[in-house]
Amino acid sequence: SSAKVGFVGLGNMGGHMARNLMKNGHPLIVFDTVPDSMQAIKKEGATLASSPQEVASQTNLIITMLPASQHVLDVYTGSSGILGSVQKGSLLIDSSTIDPSVSQQMAEESTKVGATFVDAPVSGGVNAARDAGLTFMVGSPDQSFGKVKEILDKMGKNVVHCGSVGTGQAAKICNNMLLAISMIGTAETMNLGMKLGLDPKLLAKILNMSSGRCWSSEVYNPVPGVLDGVPSSNDYQGGFGTALMTKDLGLAQNAATATQSPTPLGSLSHQLYRLMTNSGYAGKDFSSAFQFLKQQDKK
Ligand code: NAD
């Protein structure tokens, strides 16, 4: 039978990922701070734990999917954290997008107690999480990657080894900087075209058969009604929160500062997403950049 897996963080992404493990026959022991998320997955057969520490006492294979660096620090090293009761030889896979230096710190702390921590942030969005179509970017020791890939294959279609711990985060931060730039570009392009009298569905169709095509135009179009089943067509609910995108752009800017890399559009995107976060858009999907721009239109 399949190994029991611990899962901490059952949000927009983690909830789907955990369910895909259950579909593949893995018994789950889970923890989230939101009781409703716990109750929902319990009905589907998962066992509930009262803390990350209890999860670690019940299994030696754990996946975490949390919002940001501070949550990862709490869940691993906090007073009822995973490292408080982790079993020797455990494999700890963190799929949150966080600061690479925090991943490296967690790996060092884990090594001290005989466990292996790897970073494995994801790309793909909530629908890819639901359909086990995620891309995982893994920073891990060479000898651990085989075991990491074996379990991540059940939640994704691409599992890429990037290098040592922290390099998965490096790849993810670069991807999301480009994603933010392309989303804002798509939003302002669609808005301009609509003001010029073009039908948004037709404009999207033309972009997607032309050189402007990108994921934001084709798979995750920010204009309501252009695509079915994406957050823009559901009042920008669910999906990838604007506050989380702002966090990722901050990580990219920290990295750019540390390496003295010029990233003018990454910097501008960070500022735009921060404006949105501070203007009531924090909890909306990041494709609400379209709605935000529309509100700045000349009336
Ligand atoms: P989310 O906010 O929907 O989910 C996070 C979950 O963690 C919530 O259920 C929350 O209750 C839980 N949590 C917070 N603190 C906790 C704690 N101390 N103990 C246990 N649970 C705790 O976020 P999400 O959209 O699922 O994203 C998770 C991570 O994945 C983020 O780092 C995000 O940047 C990244 N990501 C998201 C997407 C996306 O499309 N949503 C895509 C790629 C990567």
From TrEMBL:
InterPro entries: 3-OH-isobutyrate_DH-rel_CS (IPR002204), 6-PGluconate_DH-like_C_sf (IPR008927), 6PGD_dom2 (IPR013328), 6PGDH_NADP-bd (IPR006115), HIBADH (IPR011548), HIBADH-like_NADP-bd (IPR029154), HIBADH-related (IPR015815), NAD(P)-bd_dom_sf (IPR036291). It holds the Pfam family NAD_binding_2. The active site is at K172. It catalyses: 3-hydroxy-2-methylpropanoate + NAD(+) = 2-methyl-3-oxopropanoate + NADH + H(+). It is found in: Mitochondrion. Pathway: Amino-acid degradation; L-valine degradation. Residues 166-292 form the 3-hydroxyisobutyrate dehydrogenase-like NAD-binding domain. Residues 4-163 form the 6-phosphogluconate dehydrogenase NADP-binding domain. Its EC number is 1.1.1.31. Belongs to the HIBADH-related family. 3-hydroxyisobutyrate dehydrogenase subfamily. This is 3-hydroxyisobutyrate dehydrogenase.
